[in-house]
Structures are given as structure tokens and as C-alpha cells.
Amino acid sequence: MITGSIVALVTPMLSNGDVDWDSLDKLVDWHLDKGTDSIVAVGTTGESATLNCDEHCQVIKRVVDRVAGRIPVIAGTGANSTSEAIELTAEAKNAGADACLLVTPYYNKPTQEGLYQHYKAIAEAVDIPQILYNVPGRTACDMQTETVLRLAEISNIVGVKEATGDVPRGIDLISRAPADFAVYSGDDATAVELMLEGGKGNISVTANVAPSEMAEMCSLAMSGKAEEARTLNNSLMPLHEKLFVEANPIPVKWALAEMGYMGLGIRLPLTVLADECHDTVREAMRSTNII
């Protein structure tokens, strides 16, 4: 089971929008050095929605090769087309990914039965561990707990990223899911509380800029050290909050550029962080001692 601090890695880009492969390598090396437990390549924070299919697969392969088996790599392979999700998931398996993360189909708003059949088809088509990803604030599609529990009965569906921020909902799922089914937080601000109740880790935006702190926080929470985990989490709260002052990954990519790890490249329709937000994000970075 993949556990701990799981960074939803950004995809660095040059000013012309091309993938910045050198910076991607350096970010992976940094996370390995700072104790990140696992990397998600080409998730939401990795701009999966604006990479073409070839780039998507190339970034996954690059991260897998750079990690070289030292920590697990989870490939973001979700799509709003089941056939496309199957294709991306198969490519990720061929690239050597350890697992795949599949967001609920966005825009077309499937029923709960449609969600079940979508994920069942992918699981049957590609023999690789698969993690469901529920983020209704982005997809306009909320996968209900009963649907997750149905899917948890499929052997290679091994977990879910719950990005609702609804801790009681997550706790209810943990209490009813099979013991070998992992419930991960996808909400940095509430992740500690979910892990203290049995969550297996946090798929994190904040870990992009504070990898060692997030790794320590997850370790403390999963060890049941509630006071220490909450104290560290409170110190990181400015990042949890201000890295969403504009749509993710706009602020976190700007923050990494400010830290010198990459340039400001980002793809339309996303734009570089607005000037009036610079001081807000910079102050959060200073108050958490990452700059």
C-alpha cells in the first residue's frame, strides 16, 4: 500500500509552453532528497488537462525513469472518456508506473451507475493498481460513498483520493471500506484530521513547495501523534490556503518559480499568477519559512 506524503507534482514549462524536462528532473531529485513518499505525475496539479496525449505519456515515463524505483510513482490517467482513460492507463503501465490515479469523468456528469461501469471497465482492461479520485469542485461529478464501496470490491481498485475536504464523509468511508483499501486526503487543510482517523496519506499541492515538512506531518499523523501533527499542520496553514488564491496550479507554479526551481511557464487557459496576488503568496511562503 502506498502511504504518506504524496506530491501532486507540477509539470514545469518553458516560457513558450514546452515541457521543461531539466526542471522536471530537478524537482524529482529534490523530492527524493526531501523525503516525499510518492509522486503523482500528470495529475490536476501537473496540468493533465492541457498536455496532449504524447506529452502526458512522456512526462509519466520521465518521472518513472528518474525515480528509478526509489519511491512509488502514481500516474494520472483519468479522462471523461472511458476509452481514453483505458488507453492512458495502459500507457502508464507500460511506462513502469506503480499505480494510476483516475479522476471522475468531468463535464459529462455521469450517473453513479455510469461511474461504476467506467471504473470497472478500466480495472478490467488494465492490470495495474488503480486509485479513484473524487474532486466534485472541479468535475461537477460527486462519486458517492456507496459507489466507492462497490468499486472497492474490485481487486485492482486499491484506494480513493477524497478531495471534498469533508472529513466526516472520509471517516465514514474508512470505517466501511475493506482493510486493504486506502483512503487518501486530497485536501491539504484537512488531511491531518483524516489521517488521524485512519487515512493512509495525503495527495498534496503544498508538498510541491514544502516537501520535508509535509512528509513529517504525514508521518506524525499516521503514527497517531495528534498534537505534534496538528501543530505542524497549523504552521503550514498559510500555504494550504494561499496556494489556492487562484486556481491550482497557478499559485504553486509561481511559488516554485519564486524559489528558483523552475520558470514561470504555464499553459492557456491558465495564466501566470496575477500581480495583485504575489504578495499574498509570498507572505505565506515567508511565514512558513520556505523562503
Secondary structure topology:
Blueprint: E1 4-8, H1 21-34, E2 38-41, H2 53-67, E3 73-76, H3 82-95, E4 99-103, H4 112-125, E5 130-134, H5 136-139, H6 145-151, E6 157-162, H7 167-176, E7 182-185, H8 191-196, E8 201-204, H9 211-222, H10 226-242, H11 250-258, H12 275-287
Parallel strand pairs: 1-2, 1-8, 2-3, 3-4, 4-5, 5-6, 6-7, 7-8
Describe the structure.
There is one protein chain. By secondary structure, the protein is of the alpha/beta class. The protein has a single domain (4-224), classed as TIM Barrel. 46% of the residues lie in helices and 13% in strands. The protein is built from twelve helices and eight strands. An eight-stranded parallel barrel has the order 1-2-3-4-5-6-7-8, surrounded by four helices. Helix 10 packs antiparallel against helix 12.
